[in-house]
Amino acid sequence: MNKQNILIAGAGGAVGKHLVEHLSGEHSLSLLTRSRTTFSSDSQASSNRIVEANVLNTSTLRGACEGVHTVISTVGASLDLRAMSDKRSFMEVDLQGNLNLLEEAKRSGVQRFVYLSAFGAESMPTAYTNAHEAFVRHLKASGLEYGIVRPTGFFYVNLEFLGMAKSGIASVIGNGKARTNPIHEADVAKACAEAALKQGNLEMNIGGPETFTRQEIAELAFAALGKKPRVMNIPAFIPTLMKPLVSPFNRRIGDLVEFLAYVATHECVAPVYGEKRLGDYFRVHC
Ligand SMILES: NC(=O)c1ccc[n+]([C@@H]2O[C@H](COP(=O)([O-])OP(=O)(O)OC[C@H]3O[C@@H](n4cnc5c(N)ncnc54)[C@H](OP(=O)(O)O)[C@@H]3O)[C@@H](O)[C@H]2O)c1
Questions:
Q1: Can you say whether the dihedral through the CA atoms of 212, 282, 16, 100 is positive or negative?
Q2: Distances (CA, A) of 19 to 171, 252, 277, 278
Q3: Which residue's CA is the nearest one to ligand 1's atom 44?
Q4: Which of 38, 47, 145, 168 could form a disulfide with 33 if both were Cys (CB 3.0 to 4.6 A apart)?
C-alpha cells in the first residue's frame, strides 16, 4: 500500500479517533479539529499534522488541504443530546460546513473525498438525512473521485439504553418492533479507511453483525447489567408532535427528535460489515 497524504476532518470525533488509530503510521495524516486541545492527551494523534479550522469559517480552512491526496470527512453536528447547547442545525454543519471543505479541497487539487452519511438517508424524509444527502449530491457533481459510507446507528448512541437501564426503566419510541443492526464506531472507521484507499467512485452501505428489534436492544442493556428488563413504549406521535414545539428554540434538537422517531419506527437493516458485538460494548460500558 502506497503511503498517502490524507486529511481527516472530524478527527477528534467518535469515528474520527478510530480512523486516526487505523491509519496512523501507514499514512501521512492531517487532523482537522476546531481546537488542537482535542488531541492534547493523545500521543498518537499529536504526532500527526494538526489543522485548527472551523468548516463554517472559510478563512480558517485556507491551506488545510495543501498537499493532500484524499480528504475523509466525518464532520457533522453532534447527535449527542448532551452537546445541544451548540444550536447550529444539521443543514448548517453537515451540508454547508462540508461544502466549504469540499471547495477548499478542490482549490488545493485534492483527488478523492470520502464522506460519512447515514444508512437509508437517500429515502428518509427527515431534515438530518436530507442535509447529508444534499451534500452527497454536491460531492458526486464535484468532479472529485468519491467514496460514500452510509452506516446504521453507532453503538455509542445505544448507550442511552444502558443509562436508562441503570435507572431501572427504559423507554422505546413506538412498539419497539422495527429492526436494525447497529455498528461499532471502529468498524465504521475501518470502512471509511477502505473507501479512502480504494480507487474509483464507490458507495458502501454498512451495518453490524447482529440484527435486533429496538425492544431487544433495550433488553440487551438490562442483560448487560444483570437486571430484569422494564421497558416502556412511548407512542410515536409524541416525538413527532415535539418537533414544531422545540424547533423554534433549538432547530437541531427538533430535527434530531424527528430523525429518532423515524428510525425507531422503521426497519433499518444494512448489509453486514462490522464485526463487533453490541452486548460486549454494553458490558464494557457498564
Ligand atoms: N451517531 C450515529 O449513529 C451516526 C450514524 C450514521 C451517520 N452518522 C454521521 O457520522 C458523522 C460522524 O459521527 P460521529 O459520531 O463521529 O460524530 P462526532 O463524534 O459528533 O464528531 C463530529 C466531528 O465533527 C467535527 N465538527 C463539528 N462541527 C465542526 C466545525 N464547525 N468545524 C470543524 N469540525 C467540526 C467535530 O470536531 P471537533 O469537535 O474536534 O472540532 C467532531 O470531531 C456525522 O456526520 C453523523 O451525522 C452518525
A1: positive
A2: 32, 26, 19, 20
A3: 76
A4: 38
pTM metric for this prediction: 0.97
Mutate to test the pocket of ligand 1, among 8, 59, 75 (most ligand atoms within 8 A of CB): 75
Q: Read off the pLDDT of residues 117-176 as tens digits, 9 standing for 90 and up.
A: 999 999 999 999 999 999 999 999 999 999 999 999 999 999 999 999 999 999 999 999
Domain boundaries, the chain: 5-152+184-206
Does ligand 1 have an atom closer than 6 angstroms to the CB of 153? yes
Whether 276 and 184 have beta carbons less than 8 Å apart is answered as: yes
The matching CATH number, chosen from 3.40.190.10, 3.30.428.10, 3.40.630.10, 3.40.50.720, for 5-152+184-206 is: 3.40.50.720
Q: Would the CB of 274 count as within 6 Å of ligand 1? A: no
Query: Does 76 contact ligand 1 (Cβ within 6 A)?
Result: yes
d(CA 254, CA 247): 5
Quote the pLDDT of residue 2: 84
Grid cell listed for 158: 445505544
Q: How confident is the model at residue 83 (pLDDT cuts 50, 70, 90)?
A: confident
